[in-house]
Amino acid sequence: MNSKKRLFTGLQPSGEALHIGNYLGALKPFCELYEQYESLLCVVDYHALTTVRDPEILRKNTVNVAKDYLAAGVDPEKAIIFRQSDVPEHTELTWILSTLVTVPFLMQAHAYKDKVAKGIEPTAGLFNYPVLMASDILLYDTDIVPVGQDQRQHIEYTREIATKFNNAYTELFKKPEERIDDSVATIPGTDGRKMSKSYNNTIPLFGTDEEIQKAVMGIVTDSKGVEEAKDPEADAVFAIHKYFADDIETLAKRYRDGGIGYKESKELLAKNIIAAIAPMRERRANISDSDVEAVLAEGAKKAQAIAKTKMDEVRVVIGVRK
User: Fold this and answer.
1) N or C, which end of the chain is more exposed by having fewer CB within 10 Å?
2) Which domain holds residue 180?
3) Which residues belong to the active site?
């Protein structure tokens, strides 16, 4: 019997290319963590339907996001990597849980309110997003869900939904815990705001050397000259250096003492980023779409074996099967 706790994480294929913020905030921490658990890595393509309406783009993005994780070093022999739509139990459980969840409960979701405020159409799917996310997690008796601070509420919702079901029927669902890596702060984009595709301020993870250099050289700084003292903690370039520099203390001293200009700092950052991602970029170039499809197909078999066992229990408990 596997004594490891189970970890679940969902990857939404809503964007074509990962950026440095994605790598530092989600990809790298997962790679450092997943072997400690029985890990499931789910490409949540049904979630992406709330924003992606082009079928070719969705198919391409689904393959690409799985390819990115494989390139980063996730071993498909040590984690179950699968596509959400390949396991129909996800949507079946979503309907069942939706019969227990109230509209006022879902109206409190921060993510829903934020997305509507940004102009995203308030569809029923977007509104019901937390229930599908809860189904993804509860279906696998998940212990741990690694999330960013902004997704804490989703896991709180998942626990509450599990409690609603357990109180209505029987104690069937495990209540997961979030794992938030406080060591990874918000990664600034080239304009100083949080790095995000929606702000068009990203540094591409698998871009060419020239694309990475161009993005880094475009980071907004103040107008201090080379010899002027600078506060490293107030500089967006230095904030990214923290994750790539060989000797961050020496660099910080140069900032405080004066003698380093922003052009030199940016050139050094671009060089370090390119060096850090070179092995991943090489691996990614050697992973074909058919390789990814084979991994997803094998992962779906393993995931569905777990999901089917859980749903068999659910159907009996709610009374649709004996």
Assistant:
1) N
2) 6-185+289-318
3) 115, 194, 197
